[in-house]
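Supplementary Text 2. Reproducibility record for the structural model of the 276-residue chain.

All settings were left at their defaults, and a single model was retained for analysis rather than an ensemble. We include the record here because the model underlies the residue-level annotations in Supplementary Table 4.
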Amino acid sequence: MLSANSLRVVRSSRAVLHPNRLLTNRLSVTCSGHWMSTSLHKKDTWHSNFNVTTVRTEKGLFYSTNYIPSLRNYTANQVKLNCWNCSQLFDKKPTFFCMSCKVVQPPEEGTSFFQIMDCDCTFTLDTQKLQKRYLQLQRSLHPDNFSQKSAKEQEYSESQSALVNKAYKTLLKPLSRGLYMLELQGMQLEEGTDSGADSHFLMELMEINEALDEAQTPEEANKIGQDTKGKLAELTEQIDAALRKGELQAAKALLGQMKYYANIDEKVKEKLSEFM
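Retained model, structure tokens:
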């Protein structure tokens, strides 16, 4: 019969060989120093790092497992980087400026928008913090600040500034943020097809669009706009819940609905501008 310590070793060894067995437990998703709690199921396709730690106790060796799930392509390249100008080794990522010689650095391949904007890797992120980070980065990275610098610094400032703009615009709105989170998982919505949409849902959208086209007053258009915003808020909560549970297919379907309502929201704004 195996001893208790031997059983611990066997269980840990099996976990290394079959890490998916641990997916039914409640886990913490680590995202560049930030975390969010989520429940994952075996069927969901999350990539992971799996570490085994040996701890010496009074009763002998104990092997503990440390399972760290992460979004695909989320973590930046693990290769250590140096400053292109003075070869100073960087101790954090992303690095926009060298702490030694102060020159701007080129964008780092594989860095996610969440890392660039120093945001929690979650669907319901703090947009005020996002905007503050955006303004801070643009004040320091804007190409106008490098007009008297070398050609290489001007090039890097332009590419960094453009990347910050793209990251900000992507993470600012729930729809583009959610689609980007799916993209990190290797998933995306199919363009130009309604084959996956429920017929009742499509009929409802058609009726809303017809009512908006026939709206004769700002009040009528505003009513449709308020109803649409309420639906978008409801979808935001549902998508956040699905992503926290690791239910990626459900999140994808809900984001598809959000895309339709976001289009209606834009049409409402256009309709209201006609009454001005």
